[in-house]
Amino acid sequence: MNIKVSDFIVRYIEKLGVRYIFGIPGAHILPVYDALYGTGITPILAKHEQGAAFMAGGYARQSGEPGVCIATAGPGATNLVTGLANAYMDRLPVLALTGETPTYSFGKGALQESTGEGLCINQLDIFRGITRYNNIVQRTDYLDQVLRKTTSILLSVNPGPVLLSFPYNVLKESVNESILDDLDIPERDHRRPEGDNAPAAMEVIDMLKKAQYPVILAGYGCIVSHAEDIISAFSSDTNIPVATSLKARGIVPEASPLSLGVLGITSNEKAFRYISEKADLVIIAGASFGERTSYNWDRKLLNGKKIVQIDINESQLNKVFTADIALNCDVKGFFNILRRCLKDDSFGHKNPDEARRYKSRYANTDVNGDEFLLVSHFLNNLNNHFGGRVCIFDDNIIYMQRFCDVSTSESYFPNSGLSSLGHAVPAAIGAKLSTEKPVVAISGDGGFQMCCMEIMTAVNHKIPISIVLLNNSTLGLVRKNQLHNYQGRFISAEFKNPDYKKLAESFGIRHYRVASLPDADNVFREADFNGRINLIELILDKNEFPKYSSGR
Fold first, then answer.
1. Which of 52, 312, 346, 506 falls 20 to 30 Å from 332 in CA-CA distance?
2. Rounded distance, CA 365 to CA 368, Å?
3. DSSP 3-state assignment of 214?
4. Where are the alpha helices (DSSP H) in 3-80?
5. Radius of gyration (C-alpha) of the chain in whole angstroms
6. Reported confidence tier of residue 433, pLDDT bands at 50, 70, 90
7. How far is CA 399 from CA 251, 476, 493, in A?
8. Helices marked H in 257-308 — which ranges?
9. Which run of H or of E encompasses 82?
10. Percent of the chain having pLDDT more than 70?
């Protein structure tokens, strides 16, 4: 049976298992919106297309399933850029659907045309570097190939964003519905082949036998590989401590004795000190060793040490250092082999006492007296209140990283890939639609004002999230750098904030102002984190800065 392309698209995303689609309608994409009418897919009307893309990413990141956003032609599509770039950096399965002007108007100067014809913008060029695949679908005779490629990317073990743009007249054309019957939508399978890595595993075990202070550096690739349990078990079997990158927090519960916490510029010093001063073997598992993790590629971190690197992405191997053993394979698969090859009687447990001493000595090296007492008290209460059963989307990163332990890898989602301000609130909205757990967004007051109107999206659709707003009337990172690197010449870093209590009242949501420890405790006595939308304003001193340097 023939159906309209617009109906076909909706049936395709239904077949993907999509329940929500985030976006803003416009003339060129209205046929798809009309096709949504009466289906099981709920359209979530955002306030800005960037927010819609962040919502789709938050949904994908929390659920592990494809998130879908939708926009009209021209500015609707270009407003998706930062959100899709964020999904690209975080390897999230996000499908963006956009409209386009009719094919018969290409090159004639049609309103909002973005085909690259004539003098109009070229949408494909704009999105080429931030999507795994993008296409302006101008005909129906190859629609099946387009959807096969789209599906293979979205459901792969290494996903990323896809953008499909449909000219208005193509959306109204007919296509045979049977194409969908021939399109296989497999269940997402996170299992990866282990490969024949037993010889390499024996080499690594030999290196571990000779090492006195080995350490595992676990990155986001371990979460993508679902390797948390095997790495935790291997660490426990051998007494080898584990440090993580920022995005991999919770692979080993950070309160546990064998966790060194986060390795990174904005963290405290325990992981850095242990690795740079004590470790003689570093197993880097699924970590890119980028600027943040490597402390601007500080050579003393890895100098004089044996290095094993394991990564499914071959381009990461030996990218910034030369490993003694570099393995292009799945992290979980290799640790499974490593554990099977390990013989306790011939290996011997490592002594964890030195790692524990470092952990205790450098637990909070930048806290003097009452500095950061309020923010550390609040964030620790936040973590303890839910016992780790919470989803936290964090744009600020610094305070949560330094003062709060993370217990599971499914509770903390830092915006560290693209590190785009304005991400946390819309991402939290998307995430909440796929979980019953409480969802919290942490944002500075600068980033909050980039996205605060999306709170009305949550209000309109009755999506309960809580926002922790760090209020110091300044762009904290910028002002910190201006103080340390530009002799205190502050410019474009300070501002006046609105009355957030009145703002919350205008949204019809609860507001809590936290300026003291009793205020903080009161939030956890009174706030309904499960059923209401809350704006929690945490007052900070703009002249207090955690002690770290990004070098800029």
1. 346
2. 8
3. strand
4. 5-15, 30-36, 49-63, 75-78
5. 25
6. very high
7. 19, 12, 19
8. 270-277
9. helix 81-89
10. 92
Please name the residues in contact with 527: beta carbons below 8 A apart, sequence gap of 6 or more.
466, 510, 512, 534, 536
Angstrom distance (rounded) from CA 518 to CA 498? 24
Pairing of strands 281-285, 306-310: parallel
Burial class (CB in 10 A: 0-12, 13-18, 19+), 27: middle
Token pair of 377 as six digits: 């008290």
Over residues 238-280, the pLDDT tens digits come to 899 999 988 888 888 888 888 988 887 777 778 888 888 888 9
33-89 confidence digits (pLDDT tens): 999 999 999 999 999 999 999 999 999 999 999 999 999 999 999 999 999 999 999
**Could you give all domains of the chain from N- to C-terminal order, each with its CATH number?**
2-182 (3.40.50.970), 198-361 (3.40.50.1220), 373-539 (3.40.50.970)
Specify whether the CB–CB gap between 108 and 81 falls below 8 A.
Answer: no
Query: SS3 for 17?
Result: coil
pLDDT tens digits, one per residue of 102-112: 877 777 777 88
Nearest alpha-carbon partner for 249 in 73, 388, 366, 77: 388
- 380, 404, 497: which is closest to 444 by C-alpha? 497
* Phi–psi pair at 260, nearest 5 degrees: -95, 0
Give the 3-state secondary structure of residue 309: strand
Neighbours of 517 (CB within 10 A): 13
Tokens of 9: 């698209």
pLDDT score recorded for residue 192:
58
H helices, E strands: number in the chain: 24, 20
In degrees, rounded to 5, the angle at the alpha carbon of residue 31 between the alpha carbons of residues 25 and 33 is: 45
107-136: string of b/e by CB count within 10 Å (b at 16+)?
eeebebbbbbeeebbebbebbeebbbbbbb
Cα dihedral angle (16, 20, 21, 22), rounded to 10 degrees? -140
Task: Report which of 158, 125, 171 is spatially closest to residue 29, judged by C-alpha positions.
Answer: 171
Instruction: Return the axis-axis angle of helices 517-526 and 373-386, rounded to nearest 10°.
Output: 20
**Encoded tokens for 481:** 């750098």
154-189 residue pLDDT tens: 998 889 999 999 999 999 999 888 888 888 887 665
Q: Tell me the C-alpha distance between 432 and 223, whole Å.
A: 20
For residue 431, the one-letter residue type is: A
Q: Where do we find the tokens 């993790």?
A: 293
Q: Judge contact between 480 and 398, C-beta under 8 A.
A: no
